[in-house]
Amino acid sequence: MRRFRPRSAAVAAAGATALTAAVLTAVPAGGATAAPAPHAPAARAVPAVAGHRLVHGVSSPLTLAQCQAKWGINCYTPLQYRQAYDLNPLYRAGVTGKGRTIVVVDSFGSPTIQHDLDVYSAQFGIRSSKVEVVKWGDVPPFDPANPDHTGWAGESTLDVEMAHAVAPDAKIVLVETGVAETEGVVGLPEMMDAEKYLIDHNVGDVITQSFGATENTFPGFDKGDFSSIQGLRYAFQDAARHGVTVLASSGDGGATDAVEDGSSNYPYPVNSWPSADPLVTSVGGTQLHLDAAGNRTAPDSVYNDYGAGGGGQSHVFARPSYQNGVKKTVGTRRGTPDISMAAAVDGGAWVYSSYDPTATGWDVYGGTSEASPLFSGIVALADQFGGHRVGDIHQALYTLAKGSPKFSGVVDVADGTNNSYDGVTGYTAVEGYDMATGVGTVDALRFVPALALTSWGR
Fold it and tell me: What are the pLDDT digits (tens) for 63-101?
């Protein structure tokens, strides 16, 4: 059965023992204990925190210098992110996401999500926010001994805390579905049903999805029959009608992604859904290079360390009109990602959780599962700034990317790094749009008002 999976391809359980066991061995989710090189494929495409070597986390986040000294990686706080993305002037002007709602969709969820967000917020002097939990379908009681449950709980925690880090006054709705992570295509309709229900009931201005499935693994793909994907687009079509922005992580396998049983990656370029859907804004990954205050010490790079930012051509969807201006890059197909945010493990985010009593504490997460909720916060800020939903942002995004960064806030990533991964040649970050980071990343102080003024939302 094809595996349907969250996108946090690399997670470092904090604490010296955990980081040795997790980050430095790339945490292959099938439980392998040998230490592969940073670009070795994960053993199985299941949640990276699942079922092995979970230990007690540290009691509080370490400083950047301590992370570098102990583990050889950079670990960032939301305060550093806020400086890096130029968010603080917006907050001082009252643009905090107030009055807007971010919807997070994950299987199983976390039984401690509100408590964990409260602890996370208090640690960094951020106001906490109410998390409304919506259980969709038959959600089983949480079992901390079940790796599917703990894997998705980690994903839920990452999603909620990253969205809150950027839009601290936005309401967050966590939709928990009862879909087992191995349900594959069987589980997708339940998630899409949940999204459509919330859209129809005016719940949520932006939806973030940190999951994906390789296009090639959908029924009928090998015969050129894409109806199994086309039949799942109803929630996104509904979102477009209601002016709701839909985001998805672009993946953590560079230009490739997992085969049907999750045992390995395809040996050639593939793409994944829902990231590749033309109605979804695909959020790729970058690596930030920051000092202790959150100032950049070097331009952003492509995320490519214990995973790589997903990107490439869809084999299902033709090039949408909003990408006509970059047709020399994407060809006749839909290209991903559209835009990128922080996702590298070396430069990962501190996250607090207590859903697993054997591993309560602070962890360091990476993956485009981090990037999509970060960008959902940016969208919520733009919704508040403009006084309306920005809706499907594609046309605005590609229009802004053609203008001056001083107005648009779109920051090109063009340092020559790439998302080649697991033996599959990917794409290089060059001037302008590329399938490593899309149009680039954002300077929120400029991007938020520009997006609000350029979008035709409601």
Answer: 999 999 988 899 999 999 999 999 999 999 999 999 999
Q: Is the pLDDT of residue 458 over 80?
A: no
Burial (Cβ within 10 Å: 0-12, 13-18, ≥19) of residue 138: exposed
Provide the whole-model pTM. 0.91
**How far is residue 301 from each of residues 78, 115, 148, 295, measured CA to CA in Å?**
19, 34, 32, 15
pLDDT in tens, 227-252: 999 999 999 999 999 999 999 999 99
Count of residues for the chain?
458
CA dist., res. 455 & res. 414, Å (int): 26
The CA–CA distances, whole Å, from 280 to 57, 131, 194, 197, 423 equal 35, 24, 16, 18, 28
**Is pLDDT at 151 greater than 50 in this prediction?**
yes
Cβ 280 vs Cβ 241: under 8 Å: no
Point out the least confidently predicted range of 33-47, 138-152, 195-209, 356-370. 33-47
Angle between the N-to-C axes of helices 444-454 and 368-386, in degrees from 0 to 180, rounded to the nearest 10: 60
Beta bridge partners of 308: 253, 304
**Token digits of residue 263:** 């045992």
Dihedral sign computed on CA atoms, order 438, 439, 440, 442? negative
Residues whose CB falls within 8 Å of the CB of residue 146, separated by 6 or more in sequence, listed in order: none
Token pair in block for residue 378: 């940016």
Residues paired with residue 307 on neighbouring β-strands, in sequence order: 305
Ramachandran quadrant class, 297 (left: phi over 0; alpha: psi -120 to 50; beta: rest) = alpha
Q: What gap in Å lies between CA 209 and CA 104, rounded to an integer?
A: 7
- One-letter amino acid of 410: V
Q: Residues of 318-357 as b/e, b for ≥16 C-beta within 10 angstroms?
A: ebbebbeebeeebeebbbbbbbbbbbbbbbbbbbbbbbbe
The span from the CA of 437 to the CA of 352, in Å, is 28
CB atoms within 10 A of CB 293: 10
Q: Which H or E element spans position 335?
A: strand 333-336
- In order, the DSSP letters of 265-304 are B-SS---EETTT-TTSEEEEEEE--B-TTS-BSS--EE-E
Determine the Cα–Cα distance for residues 455 and 212; give it in Å rounded to an integer. 27
Give 59's pLDDT tier (boundaries 50, 70, 90): confident
pLDDT of 54 above 70 = no
DSSP state of 107: E
Structure confidence at residue 51 as a pLDDT band (50, 70, 90):
very low
Alpha-helical runs (H) found in 289-393: 327-330, 368-386
